[in-house]
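JOB MANIFEST
job_type = single_chain_structure
chain_count = 1
residues = 146
[input]
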Amino acid sequence: MAEQTSKQLPAQGAELSAGTPFRPRLGDLASDLAENGRIGVVVRVPGASSASYHLRPPGGGREWSAPSSGDTLHPVPVPVTHVSPLKRDVIYDHRAQQAALPVMVHHEDGGMSESVLILEPAQVELYRIQLDHIIEQRHQARGGKP
């Protein structure tokens, strides 16, 4: 399945159902609705040493606290840096008239997750033309050698 190496998994929010509070871990990014959506790094979680979550701006700065229930906290997705194709077969679904290209999504924190790029027939044709141009440019840069 998907290789997840990031500290905060991008799909973490998808597993939550309505009414289930977000329970961030140390080092996670969280948006605090009580602070107008302010984003912070969780530096302390509720437990024996703290009655609430403590957050600090990502670049440093003054700490603030959030309720131990986590009601005001929401996950912040880890930004994507790029996507690369996986060395697997592309699948074409005739019923849906879509191609599925397996890809690896690379995140800013170094994490990766597998996904699928879905292409409609017109997109497949467009990308084929564009890839042909790239291949031709590569050959020309090599002096016409494949």
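[summary]
Strands lie at 29-32, 38-44, 53-56, 64-66, 73-75, 80-85, 91-93, 98-107, 112-119.
The CA atoms of residues 113 and 133 lie 29 Å apart.
exit_status = 0
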